[in-house]
UniProtKB/TrEMBL annotation:
One Pfam family linked to the record: DUF2272
InterPro entries, per database record: DUF2272
Organism: Acidisoma cellulosilyticum
Key words, A-Z: Signal
Source species, domain of life: Bacteria
Keyword Signal: yes
Positions of the DUF2272 domain: 98-284
Record-given protein name: DUF2272 domain-containing protein
Signal peptide range: 1-19
Length: 288
C-alpha cells in the first residue's frame, strides 16, 4: 500500500501545473469575487493561515490534498481500519490514540489550522477544551475531530475561501448540495449522488451517523446532523481507499467497495458497503 501511495502522489504531482496569478481577498467577511477552481487565492492576514498558504506559494491541487492526507496517516502509524464498527467492543479510554503524548497535540493542530479564527473549537485538542481543561474520555464524542481533520487537509492543500471549514461534516455536505442546486460558485465543491457518480482521488465521500444514518441524498440539504467524511486517496477495480480522522480515535485508512462502474451504490440506491450508509460524494474543483 505504501509504495502504491507514493506512486499515486508522484503521478498526481506530475500532472499539476505550478504557474498562477494570485487574487487578493479578505477572509471572514467575504471576498471580492468567488475563487476560481484554477486560481490560487492570496488571502488577507489571518492567524490561521501559514505564510505559504496566505501568500499563495502554490495552487489548490489534488496532489497536495492526497499527499497531506497520506502524511498524516503515516504519522499516526498507518492504521488500516476495515472492521464493522457495529462488531467492535468498548475501547479502553486509557489507550485512545488521540489522548496520547504527541497525538493530542496533533489533533489540536487540526483544530487550530482547520477551523476559522473566530471558531472557539480552534483551541481544542485531543483531550482539552478551549480553556485547557482535560475532558473525560466518556464525553469525547462532543469533541469529535473528523471534520476538523478534513478541514485541515483542505486548508493545507490551499483551498483558501473556496472550502467551508467547519467542525461538522454536515456544513460542507449541505454547502456542496447547495452549490449543485444553485451553481453560485461560492465554494469549489459540488454534491453527487452515490449511485450516479464514481468518486476519484481527492473527492470526499460521506455518510450520515446515528439519527442521520437513514438520510438519503434526495433529502439534502438537511440542517445539522452527525456524519463522517473521508478523502479518497486511491482507486482499484473493486474498491477505493479513503483516509479519515477520528476513526478509532486516530487517522486511519479504510477500503470501501464499489461497483464495476466505480460507484458507491447500485442504480436503485443500494449501497454496497454494509458497514456505512454512504450518502454522497463531494466533488472538489481542484486546480488540475
Amino acid at each position: 500500500m505504501k509504495n502504491a501511495a507514493f506512486g499515486l502522489i508522484l503521478s498526481a504531482v506530475a500532472l499539476t501545473a505550478c504557474g498562477h496569478t494570485p487574487t487578493t481577498v479578505a477572509l471572514k467577511g467575504g471576498w471580492v469575487s468567488p475563487p476560481s477552481a484554477s486560481t490560487c487565492v492570496a488571502q488577507a492576514d489571518d492567524g490561521q493561515e501559514p505564510p505559504f498558504i496566505r501568500n499563495c506559494f502554490g495552487n489548490f491541487d489534488r496532489a497536495s490534498a492526497i499527499a497531506i492526507a497520506y502524511a498524516e496517516w503515516r504519522a499516526w502509524g498507518q492504521v488500516v481500519y476495515d472492521a464493522d464498527p457495529k462488531d467492535e467492543g468498548p475501547v479502553d479510554p486509557n489507550t485512545k490514540a488521540e489522548r496520547q503524548p504527541g497525538f493530542w497535540q496533533r489533533v489540536g493542530l487540526y483544530w487550530w489550522l482547520g477551523m476559522n479564527e473566530s471558531n472557539p473549537t480552534s483551541a481544542w485538542t485531543g483531550q482539552h477544551d478551549a480553556s485547557g481543561v482535560v475532558f473525560s474520555p466518556d464525553v469525547d464524542g462532543s469533541f469529535a475531530w473528523s471534520a476538523a481533520f478534513i478541514s485541515f487537509v483542505m486548508r493545507m492543500a490551499g483551498a483558501g475561501p473556496s472550502f467551508p471549514y467547519a467542525e461538522s461534516h454536515s456544513v460542507y455536505i449541505n454547502a456542496a448540495v447547495e452549490e449543485s442546486l444553485n451553481q453560485s460558485g461560492q465554494y469549489a465543491i459540488q454534491a453527487e449522488a452515490p449511485n450516479a457518480y464514481a468518486p476519484v482521488v481527492g473527492d470526499l465521500i460521506c455518510f450520515g451517523r446515528n439519527g442521520a444514518a437513514a438520510l438519503t441524498y434526495a433529502q439534502l440539504p438537511a440542517g445539522r446532523y452527525t456524519s463522517h467524511c473521508g478523502i479518497v486517496v486511491a482507486k482499484a477495480p473493486d474498491q477505493i481507499s479513503i483516509i479519515g480522522g477520528n476513526v478509532e480515535d486516530a487517522v486511519a485508512l479504510t477500503h470501501v467497495p464499489v461497483t464495476d462502474q466505480g460507484l458507491l451504490a447500485e442504480p436503485d440506491g443500494t449501497v454496497l458497503d454494509t458497514r456505512y450508509p454512504w450518502l454522497l460524494v463531494i466533488r472538489i474543483a481542484y486546480n488540475q
